[in-house]
Design brief:
The complex is a heterodimer of chains A (244) and B (241).
Chain A: H1 3-18, H2 21-41, H3 47-77, H4 80-85, H5 91-120, H6 129-152, H7 157-167, H8 169-173, H9 186-194, H10 196-209, H11 214-238
Helix pairs in contact in A: 1-5, 2-3, 2-5, 3-5, 3-6, 3-7, 3-10, 5-6, 5-11, 6-10, 6-11, 10-11
Chain B: E1 9-18, E2 21-31, E3 36-40, H1 47-55, E4 62-67, E5 70-71, E6 81-84, H2 96-107, H3 112-120, H4 136-148, E7 154-158, H5 166-181, E8 185-190, H6 193-196, E9 201-206, E10 209-214, H7 216-223, H8 228-237
Parallel strand pairs in B: 3-8, 3-9, 6-7, 7-8
Antiparallel strand pairs in B: 1-2, 1-4, 4-5, 9-10
Classes of the chains: A mainly alpha (244), B alpha/beta (241).
């Protein structure tokens, strides 16, 4: 592990994205647009105040997962990864570099999504907006790191895109958006309680409704960060210098 | 053998499978230091697999590969071996300079090195352009420039001159010989037989094994032929492996 190499990698990834303005716009705007759509659907009901926080968890998470997994897969496919791994770049340098670069984008994206949900869509936030933003950013970074991990197991774009339904959809289904988790069958509830997206949804809902104190939210935030660290470690360990 | 007098590359009894197919079955080869060695053979003969094993990115079944006296792929070698893959392994969505700056940072090489490799590969006019907008020949030169960063002791170049115009090809071969004269060891693969004559030494490969290991002149004399292609055919006819 080496700070210079990690930062150089993060800078390189950001330069690559800078040369692709359309990706930047999509990345920043799409989650807000989807949140706006949900708000519009429920505009004549009080439902948005209940599901709105979950949407802030959901859309940035999915978008960051997809973008990161495809970008890293592309690195694998074009031979640059092979070249880097024949150089003195640590596996952790690469994974952390990607996490930092996409983490920065996640900060921008989530800030925009929160701002949009609160000011344009009129989402009521009883708790601290700062804490809401912190959870939203951690959740988007979680999407990034799970995307990094998923791309380690994919050889082609077809495979990596299918990791989304495999890794993301169950978290959405069991996260308590469709049916509160305490009404799920016991086994599914136990699984749902474990999944990282559930913690993000719980924390965002708690801040928005003011139903729990800040200590609870910070606790959930720490659990999400633990998943982030775990995914980064696992992604570094599964990266192989030698391939068949 | 101590590391400073060991050959640039020593491969012993190397077996590699890719998928269900055996690519290398007991390959032996030696690359001496400070010269340009050509790894010549038709496509599919296993050249790329040998090169991947030498830079330490290939999973091998058995055998030993030592580079500059150290096991291939070991950490100290990652500064000392430059590798150019067949497709230009550079970032299309970065400029030439951004590519070189990044790989320079990864290698921990001197900043001035970027200018040196740009001059060596004659890329001065394209420095601010996106690599994706360059011609195929220019892209492969960017890839070569990256391999030259940090002045590695061994350069492993997989078909570096494919698709280049004859003037540029000649310039690159001149560059390879200048590097060798300065002490760099080079292993350069090609499926173009007429490039073989430019090498100091040749390893002729076919079907996962080395058919001949000789100088171009020695090879022609041994086979009684006048060009490398004919020598290659003579070797196969006379019951090579």
């Amino acid at each position: 592990m080496n700070l210079t190499r990690t930062l150089a990698t993060a800078g390189r990834v950001l330069s690559q994205i800078r040369h692709d303005p359309r990706t930047i716009v999509l990345l920043l705007v799409v989650p807000s647009l989807l949140i706006g759509l949900v708000a519009w659907i429920f505009s004549d009901t009080p439902v948005f105040d209940t599901v709105g926080p979950a949407m802030i968890a959901l859309f940035p998470f999915i978008v960051m997962f997809l973008v990161t997994s495809i970008t890293t897969l592309r690195e694998r496919r074009t031979g640059t990864l092979e070249r880097l791994l024949s150089m003195p770049l640590g596996r952790g340098d690469l994974i952390l570099g990607y996490t930092l670069a996409f983490g920065l984008l996640a900060v921008l994206q989530s800030s925009l999504a929160v701002l949009f949900a609160v000011t344009v869509c009129g989402l009521e936030i009883a708790g601290s907006v700062g804490l809401l933003l912190a959870v939203a950013v951690a959740d988007a970074i979680l999407g990034t790191t799970l995307g990094l991990l998923a791309s380690a197991f994919a050889r082609t774009e077809f495979q990596v895109v299918q990791f989304m339904p495999l890794l993301v959809f169950p978290q959405v289904l069991l996260g308590g958006i469709f049916l509160p988790r305490d009404q799920l069958p016991d086994v599914l509830q136990a699984i749902g309680d474990w999944l990282p997206l559930s913690h993000a949804i719980d924390a965002l809902t708690a801040v928005a409704s003011g139903s729990e104190d800040d200590a609870y939210v910070v606790g959930e935030l720490l659990i999400i960060l633990a998943w982030v660290v775990g995914a980064v470690l696992l992604a570094s360990l599964t990266l192989r210098r030698r391939t068949p | 053998m101590d590391a400073s007098s060991a050959p640039a590359v020593q491969v012993t009894d190397l077996h590699v499978r890719r998928g269900s197919h055996s690519v290398l079955h007991g390959l032996h080869l030696t690359v001496p230091r400070g010269i340009v060695v050509g790894l010549i053979g038709p496509s599919g003969s296993g050249k790329t697999t040998v090169m991947r094993a030498i830079v330490g990115v290939q999973v091998i079944r058995s055998g030993t590969v030592s580079v500059l006296g150290l096991p291939a792929g070991s950490a100290p070698l990652r500064h000392r071996v430059g590798y150019v893959t067949q497709e230009a392994s550079v970032y299309d969505d970065l400029t030439v300079r951004q590519n070189l700056d990044y790989f320079r940072a990864v290698l921990g090489a001197d900043r001035a090195d970027v200018t040196r490799v740009i001059d060596a590969t004659d890329l001065g006019g394209a420095i601010g352009q996106l690599v994706g907008d360059l011609s195929g020949g220019q892209r492969s030169r960017v890839s070569l420039a990256v391999a030259l960063l940090g002045s590695p002791d061994l350069l492993v170049l997989d078909e570096p001159t494919v698709g280049l115009d004859p003037v540029l090809r000649r310039d690159l071969w001149d560059l390879f010989h200048r590097l060798a004269a300065a002490g760099t060891s080079l292993l350069v693969s090609s499926h173009v037989m007429d490039e073989a004559a430019r090498c100091d030494r040749l390893l002729l490969m076919r079907d996962g094994a080395v058919l001949a290991d000789d100088t171009p002149a020695g090879l022609l004399a041994a086979t009684g032929t006048t060009d490398i292609e004919a020598a290659f055919l003579a070797l196969i006819r006379d019951g090579g492996p």
